[in-house]
Design brief:
Layout (H helix, E strand, L loop, with lengths): L5 E6 L2 E6 L2 E7 L5 E7 L7 H4 L4 H22 L12 H42 L8 H23 L3 H21 L6 H6 L8 H16 L7 H10 L1 H15 L5 H17 L5 H14 L2 H13 L1
Antiparallel strand pairs: 1-2, 2-3, 3-4
Helix pairs in contact: 2-3, 2-9, 3-4, 4-7, 5-11, 7-9, 7-10
Length: about 300
């Protein structure tokens, strides 16, 4: 499999694809029209030395992905209104436009608050819950392992619970469309609906795999935090999150460029996790994914290059 350099994410009824500094969001509107917004996003850090510095670049990439992700989610959400809102006049149309902007802001704030709560629950809850076992377990190492297991349980439970929501299930279908489109071209196939349908919905550079490695590496990293103060232990756990993100990014980056057997083996758990966060998309969703790719990436030239390399 060749490396294309294109990545993306699912949004509400759509797909965002990014290549270099250009990204495009394709959304299927309620009237079934596909609308595409194409923009340039150069990121939050302009210093090329920092952007290419190992581990640091992962932290920067993570923050930029969060910022861009919130922006594109808000954009996609702006096309969907409550069913009881109807347009039947220019003044009412202007009012609805204001409501759209308000709703977009609310969506962005909701996402931000949800992320803050997720971090708090993910770090604080398993830490204090594991302290309850100190009454029965004398080994600090075992208590830390219990904390890690609780962290994994929370991670799995969160994904399983949100996957029961109808809107999230559709986002997961678009997530599958995103992966399938990238896999299609990276395996040297023309970007058509039929070829995309045959492609895998699992990809080694997925954010799900990244989060899984964040969880695993955080468990390993906390094994080395041995201080008496509970507050300090918790503070150190939170403080090393950027480093953990940087290490996880480096592995995902390597995995996306390598077919090494060991790398593929280590990527397996993340790929298995993607079975929870992706679903098989329908043809309309695949069309949205294709539209997003074509807005930012010359897949025809890329596929031709992949085929030529495969012949040599």
């Amino acid at each position: 499999m060749a490396y294309s350099g294109i990545g993306g994410q699912a949004v509400m009824e759509g797909v965002m694809m990014k290549h270099k500094d250009t990204y495009a969001v394709a959304v299927r509107k309620p009237d079934h029209e596909i609308i595409i917004e194409k923009k340039t996003y150069s990121g939050i850090c302009k210093n090329q030395i920092l952007r290419n510095l190992i581990f640091v670049r992962g932290i920067i990439n993570f923050i930029e992905s969060m910022v861009l992700g919130m922006s594109t989610l808000t954009f996609s959400a702006s096309f969907f209104e409550e069913d009881d809102k109807k347009t039947d006049g220019s003044s009412e149309g202007a009012s609805q436009e204001r409501n759209k902007r308000k709703e977009s802001l609310e969506v962005g704030l909701t996402i931000a608050v949800s992320l803050i709560l997720a971090v708090a629950i993910f770090m604080v809850l398993p830490f204090y819950a594991s302290l309850l076992f100190q009454r029965f377990v004398s080994s600090k190492t075992v208590v830390i392992l219990i904390e890690g297991v609780l962290r994994l349980i929370i991670f799995f439970a969160y994904i399983i619970l949100i996957s029961q929501m109808e809107d999230i299930r559709r986002v997961f279908m678009y997530h599958g469309a995103e992966h399938k489109c990238i896999n299609c071209i990276e395996h040297g196939m023309d970007l058509t609906v039929e070829n995309v349908k045959m492609s895998s919905r699992e990809h080694k550079r997925c954010g799900t795999s990244f989060l899984f490695f964040v969880v695993i590496i955080s468990i390993l990293a906390t094994m080395f935090i041995r201080v008496d103060s509970r507050i300090l232990r918790l503070a150190l756990r939170i403080a090393i999150i950027p480093l953990i993100a940087g290490i996880s990014y480096e592995f995902i980056r390597l995995a996306g460029r390598s077919d090494n057997r060991l790398v593929n083996l280590l990527s397996k758990p993340g790929l298995w996790m993607q079975r929870l966060t992706t679903r098989e998309p329908d043809e309309e969703m695949i069309e949205v994914g294709i539209a997003s790719v074509e807005a930012v990436f010359d897949w025809k030239s890329y596929v031709e290059t992949v085929r030529k390399e495969g012949e040599t």
